[in-house]
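Table S4 entry, UspA domain-containing protein.
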Amino acid sequence: MASKPVMLVGVDSCEHSKYALEWTLDNFFKPFGSNAPYKLIILHARPTAASAMGFAGAGAADVMPHVENDLKRQAAQVAEKTKEICSSKSVNDAQVEICEGDGRNVLCDAVDKYNASILVVGSHGYGAVKRAVLGSVSDYCAHHAHCTVMIVKKPKVKH
């Protein structure tokens, strides 16, 4: 029996990421039960302490272990929440991983590592200026990942 193609989902702590994961589970996994068409790998990219601190001056070495511990704690919370979401959708065979590095590079590298057929990421819905200043993981992946990239946008709430 041939192995299933891999679907890779990038997650972080934002609501857009949670929505993208839930949407993916609802549309590609929940309807199929144990016969889902993809092997699911969910990946969280944890920033390095140095990148989180930016250019710190004197005393940075004293703070670095605290920042590192906080980033590990936050990543563990994201992984735990991700597992809870999967469990609530009756998806129990998802592989959840935490990798250290910039999300753009971590996701594109994981696509190659797992030979993923599709990469799913959420979208913050930034405009062109914010995207240019802050960078966009989804935009970067759409241009650099060696697979199909699906960008899931959370619908805007109408008032």
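Residues 112 and 146 are 7 Å apart (CA to CA).
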